[in-house]
Amino acid sequence: MNTETVNKTKEVAEQTERITGAEAIIKCLMAEGVDILYGYPGGAIMPVYDELYKFRDQIHHVLTRHEQGAAHAAQGYARISGKVGVAMATSGPGATNLITGIADAQIDSTPLVCVTGQVPSALLGSDAFQETDIVGISTPVTKWNHQVTKASQIPEVLAKAFYIAKSGRPGPVLIDITKDAQFEEFDFKYEKCKGVRSYKAIPDTDPKSVTAAAELINNAKKPMIVWGQGIILGEAEAELKAVVEKAGIPAAWTILGASALPTSHPLNIGMVGMHGNYAPNKLTNECDVLIAIGMRFDDRVTGNLATYAKQAKVIHFDIDPAEINKNVHADIAVLGNSKESLALLLAELNENIHEAWHQEFKDLYAIEYDKVIKNDISPTKEGLTMGEVLKQINIESKGNAAIVSDVGQHQMIACRYSEFNITKSNITSGGLGTMGFALPAAIGAKMAAPGREVVAIIGDGGYQMNIQELGTIFQQKAAVKIVVLNNEFLGMVRQWQQLFFDKRYASTEMTNPNFVAIAEGYYIKARKVVKREELADAVKEMMESKESYFLEVCVEKEGNVFPMIPSGASVSDVRLS
Amino acid sequence: MKEEIKTLTISIYTENNIGLLNRISAIFQRRTINIESLTTSQSEIENVNRFVIVVNITESQAKKIVGQIEKQIEVIRAYYHTDEETIYTESCMFKIKSKLLFEEPQIQNLIKDSNTRIVTVNKEFFVLEKSGRRNEIESLRRDLNAFGIMQFVRSGRIAVTKDEMKVTEMLAAFNNK
Fold first, then answer.
1. Among A13, A86, A286, B119, which residue's beta carbon has the most beta carbons within 10 A?
2. CATH architecture of the domain with residue range A16-188
3. Which of A197, A296, A320 best probes binding to B when mutated, by most B CB atoms within 10 angstroms?
């Protein structure tokens, strides 16, 4: 035997090892840098859980109280860290319970890998116990999905799953693995995926489109930027700031773009959309060049498309070619990664100050402050407002907390009034509007960034949609701060009923339980505030707590969120009352 | 101004994977667009499939749909074309009682005149096959219907484009990346 052969044999022995599919799944996750995953065991995924037990010192599995909680926790983890969130569930109901979180991740471009167990391949299609066609069910709400029936497919499929979830415009991927594939032994070897031949993650940026965009911006008299989550996903915060400052362009954000530029930045002109700020909504229909960056012109942003920014030339920066001209015609489309395309743009921009134009935003802000903001954050009338709670949180957090909001009035207030100094700090269900999102998402966010203060702002309706996750908070000792803004109504629906359905409050009033007792039942410190005098102290106590803390604030029952663009109206018809 | 609804042929080059048909048809279903016909087969490239889908939609709808289709991971490229930009055909089969072939001499003329092929003949029935445009097939069906048809089936449209589709080059570019 010559030495070469010996070495070769040794090399092969090192490269592969004979293990089961279940163990391979865990090794793949670890190779992808997964330190925490969220899930719930059950029959068809049990071999994987057995391996999780073996590797419990290296990979932390968080038992949520419902699979929906696992999916949202994985989302919270992904949104605050920029890493891929991982959720795991068994077949049948375990898998279907993930679907809401997956759909949420799809529409909000959140990188997730969901692994579901499936009945043994011999039973597929036989209506076996806990069999469901999860690949069929998840198809329209996943970026990619795949069923694995042989252990040998696991490394390649999981590598592809992580690559697809994270690259380009991120999204959720579901991998369904039959139980026999989990038991089967094979020669394991892991290689990270570097590309998929039919998939171009990032389209090429045409330098000519950048030059054309720069020319339009350099000649603009009233340019306005609206940025979205594409800045955060592309980690282009510094490039955005540089562009905004060099060209002196007032810049507004969509709900998912919040926190990419600090709230205090002088050119940050606030949120666009249905409950966004007055100035950027109004002036969308006054600007001469609208620069949309990493946003998708959602209907909640644009209102009636027929009257949206018709006077403006539109420049659309996006990583997803399918977004170009989908809702709003782009005069110039700049494809590619926002970090790179904005850097190219920056080099071609002239320094500029649009002082008079910027003043128009300030003037409209003064009107909004007087008519809305003042009464929201510094009310003099009896009855606590959601806005003053947010103001207190800002005072205590100094703008450094991550705010995880649910869906409804409190969400709009949280996004409008939270101060953000740090990017990736506004974690909310934007596109899907999933009530029940915040509590589990806050768990994921806190566990991914234990050094950060994570405050969940939730309404009394959404809180009760995943209230069981208090159990996860207790078991994991996740120091999440939970604020329930209780108005004893499904407030946003009630607001619409008041404004558009003659105050016919059909099924929106809630008779609520003793929330403090429930939190205390989970051994979570809890406090309830009903009077303004108690608020500052209670928020301070909550924020100073080293452990999880539940704060219920009983707010005005029939408070409304303004400004508001009524559904189907023009952005310029934004109402202040 | 209302945009004209046209008959458009959507051609899609894809990987050959389970579930992709579902993913593609879901894009039409979600937008309540009826698929007039759908055919899949091997394409000119080894291991690459080609879908040919016929829909009646406006060109601006088609552009958006093609974008959504191309976004699917296992789709290599999608295009849409008008009838004028493609060479297309459909195919059909008729099963007819054999005795009619001898009792009704007109049938023999119909077969000859319409360039229809006899696939098989036995004591009970004979089978005809014809390829062509929809109106040719429809007119043959009407004519044969007068005598009685045991079974009739028509395929979806298959089409090639007059212009080149640079899918091979695109795949090469993907691979070199």
1. A86
2. 3-Layer(aba) Sandwich (3.40)
3. A197
